[in-house]
Amino acid sequence: MAPTPGLVVVDKAAGMTSHDVVARVRRLAGTRKVGHAGTLDPMATGVLVLGVDRATRLLGHLMLTEKSYDATVRLGATTTTDDAEGELVDTAPAGHLEPAGVAAAFAAQVGEIMQVPTAVSAIKIDGKRAYARVRDGEQVELKARPVTVHALEVLGQRVVDDFLDIDISMRCSSGTYVRAIARDVGETLGVGGHLTALRRTAVGPFDLARARTLEELADDFAVVAIADAARATFPGVDLSEEQAQHVRYGRALDLALPGEGEHALFAPDGEFLALYAPKGGRATPVAVFVG
User: Which residues belong to any copy of the Pseudouridine synthase II N-terminal domain (predicted)?
Assistant: First the structure.
């Protein structure tokens, strides 16, 4: 039986790579056509969205959505990877830091900022991943990139052996490195910092309430149908049968879409057809999912 095209929302356990999760879901779905939207580091847990069958084509568009995280930052210690998986580079007393000053340093990370990604990121440099270059002993310097931190809340602060552990919750654009937030706040406060825990709580409209562990999926392989996923992620437009037929051939429509950006187009029977965007007063195809 062919797999049902759609999204699988996984609550990833610590210690697994995103590729490990993809491999498990391939076995559960009975197809190799499985991909994921947005890598989670092995130490991280939480929401990992995967596409099955033709829904894999939707993933590149889903990666444009915002993401939410809960995290713990340790101030007073710097590591090679800006998180707890790296080697300790330096330490400095941080227990004396005033809560108001710490909160202000995190608040400065909110908004549209220029962020230098961590050196062990998956960003490619001349075709090779940055983390692979670091692993091979190369000195890697990445350029700052614009990212947006929509909201960042300090939930708690506590002293641990003269380090200062900070629990935060944040909502940000794709491409934002939470490890870099920890690093930059530590630098601002002059004591260094790194990430000790990270849990992704949402990717766009898909949150932990919709996520299932791999063990749960083994008992009940729950798939968010591709039409439901598209309606949850993009503004939806219901078409006439004549319009739907044009979309099946990838033709532009004389249709004013209700907003900017990508819109999900549906046939009269509810079938998800395509993503279209406005251009010159018409609706033009971005990606067609039927044909």
Answer: 26-178
